[in-house]
């Protein structure tokens, strides 16, 4: 038997989808490393599997993002309010080390902070992450030295999260491992990874999606609960899962997932909720009372029309728009000719939350990157969206540089910043539109065109419908040639006794 370090693996396996064969952008980009892989090519030793290659690329890109923060690490965080914006290297992490009491050994949620904030305004699991990083930070030296160390410790922990995200994305859609390069090489991912602690929730959600794809609903639910304990948005994906399981009649699996999510969330939150109720409630009160802020459509309207939008008004309009978006996604799920893929709807619901929110911090793009790679693994569309996000990343910092540089007016005036916000909105809407088109025209979906149904869908993959509306009630056979080696499949069949393999 050949040893593991000498076995060669062919990349011409019949069930492996190679982007360089189906994506012209991927084929063109591959010229940098010698061009598309030929039919008889070998990857070399078995150690260089797609998951390892993509994990290393993700770590390398993360490291480049750390290098991009070097001007701030060398002093801009501490000695110049505007220089951290002109260099586009701002991060919340070093500022909150002292600003949220970690430098003084205060316990999050239990100890009051000096000033108006009173308590840490982050969900419990993120607070635990921040606290663990403070334990690993040396307490000697100046406060600037400690803040540098705190950022480095957090960067190391977040790098591990980035690797988890890349690995889970690769493994979620088994026949399309190289789609993970969309995550690993995403420029906005590298630029925003160390602004805040969002990667913790993104990693937990990515792991949850992997568990669902492997038909482990309880593990999926537990990870969703943990992700929601780190950031609110992961809980949103249970909405699309509900309507998908409704259409497929998979109520038991959805119930298991929901129970796991609620249970895991309670295990993390209940002790703090009972022992430090004021500190625990700070995140939810701060989210509700926070005013219209950077990146939102509300801010553009407020500044362009010179009107004051109160937090209550913004909350009401955001809620109305989000409810309408959820209703639209539900209607689309029941009326689409084929049941939408789980990743498609997960992307759409999180994108809707981002688009209707009263604030859009530049690191929120991290929420969408792995979902976009699973929902629309097409380099052209992905890069168009990423270009818009990079422009917003530069626009927000240049605008802040303009507002903090006094009479020097270094940076981008308000009109330029509004253009950056519009670019972000248009780029996200564009990707949403392409995903919606794929749902109503499944023959345009690159995942299904390769012969798959819903590789990230777990028990939904290949399941038959039990509840549909409108034209979706008519069976839609899949051509024989799209499923090599298998019989034709009628995805519109509403047999309630069907069980996926």
UniProtKB/TrEMBL annotation:
Q: Where is the composition biased (Basic and acidic residues)?
A: 492-501
Write down the InterPro entries for this protein, in alphabetical order. Answer: GT87 (IPR018584), UCP010361 (IPR016570)
Name any GO cellular component annotation: plasma membrane
Q: To which protein family does this belong?
A: Belongs to the glycosyltransferase 87 family.
How does the record say this protein sits in the membrane?
Answer: Multi-pass membrane protein
Q: Which GO terms describe its molecular function?
A: hexosyltransferase activity
Q: Per the record, a Pfam family?
A: GT87
Identify the main location.
membrane
- Keywords of the record: Cell membrane, Membrane, Transferase, Transmembrane, Transmembrane helix
Q: Where is this region: Disordered?
A: 476-501
Return the protein name.
Membrane protein
The subcellular localization recorded is: Cell membrane
At the top level, the lineage of the source is Bacteria
Instruction: Provide the transmembrane region boundaries.
Output: 47-67, 149-170, 182-212, 218-245, 257-277, 314-336, 342-361, 382-402, 417-440
């Amino acid at each position: 038997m050949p040893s593991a370090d000498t076995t060669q693996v062919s990349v011409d396996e019949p069930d492996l989808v190679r982007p360089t064969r189906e994506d012209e952008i991927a084929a063109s980009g591959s010229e940098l490393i010698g061009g598309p892989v030929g039919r008889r090519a070998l990857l070399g030793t078995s150690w260089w599997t797609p998951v390892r290659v993509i994990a290393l690329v993700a770590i390398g890109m993360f490291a480049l993002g750390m290098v991009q923060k070097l001007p701030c690490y060398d002093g801009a965080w501490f000695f110049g309010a505007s220089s951290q914006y002109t260099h586009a290297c701002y991060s919340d992490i070093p500022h909150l080390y002292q600003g949220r009491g970690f430098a003084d050994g205060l316990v999050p949620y239990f100890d009051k902070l000096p000033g108006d904030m009173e308590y840490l305004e982050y969900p419990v699991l993120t607070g635990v992450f921040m606290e663990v990083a403070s334990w690993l930070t040396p307490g000697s030296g100046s406060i600037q030295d400690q803040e540098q160390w705190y950022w480095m410790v957090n960067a190391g922990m977040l790098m591990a999260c980035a690797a988890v995200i890349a690995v889970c994305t690769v493994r979620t859609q088994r026949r399309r491992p190289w789609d993970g390069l969309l995550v690993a090489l995403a420029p906005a991912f590298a630029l925003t990874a160390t602004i805040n602690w969002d990667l913790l929730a993104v990693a937990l959600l990515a792991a949850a999606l992997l568990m669902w794809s492997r038909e482990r609903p309880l593990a999926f639910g537990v990870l969703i609960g943990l992700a929601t304990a780190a950031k609110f948005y992961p809980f949103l994906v249970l909405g699309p899962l509900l309507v998908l399981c409704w259409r497929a009649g998979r109520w038991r699996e959805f119930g298991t997932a929901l129970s796991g999510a609620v249970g895991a969330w309670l295990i993390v939150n209940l002790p703090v909720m009972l022992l430090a109720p004021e500190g625990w409630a700070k995140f939810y009160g701060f989210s509700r009372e926070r005013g219209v802020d950077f990146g939102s459509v509300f801010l553009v309207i407020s500044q362009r029309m010179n009107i004051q939008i109160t937090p209550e008004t913004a909350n009401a309009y955001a809620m109305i728009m989000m409810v309408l978006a959820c209703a639209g996604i539900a209607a689309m799920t029941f009326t689409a000719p084929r049941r939408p893929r789980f990743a498609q709807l997960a992307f759409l619901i999180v994108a809707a939350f981002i688009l209707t929110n009263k604030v859009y911090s530049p690191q929120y793009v991290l929420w969408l990157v792995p979902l976009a790679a699973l929902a629309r693994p097409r380099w052209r569309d992905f890069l168009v969206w990423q270009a818009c996000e990079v422009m917003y990343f530069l626009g927000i910092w240049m605008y802040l540089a303009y507002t903090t540089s006094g009479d020097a007016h270094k940076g981008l005036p308000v009109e330029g910043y509004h253009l950056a916000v519009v670019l972000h909105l248009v780029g996200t809407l564009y990707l949403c539109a392409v995903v919606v088109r794929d749902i109503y025209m499944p023959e345009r979906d690159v995942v299904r065109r390769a012969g798959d149904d819903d590789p990230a869908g777990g028990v939904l993959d290949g399941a038959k419908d039990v509840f549909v509306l409108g034209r979706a009630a008519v069976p839609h056979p899949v051509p024989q040639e799209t499923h090599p080696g298998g019989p034709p499949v009628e995805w519109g069949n509403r047999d309630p006794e069907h069980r996926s393999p």
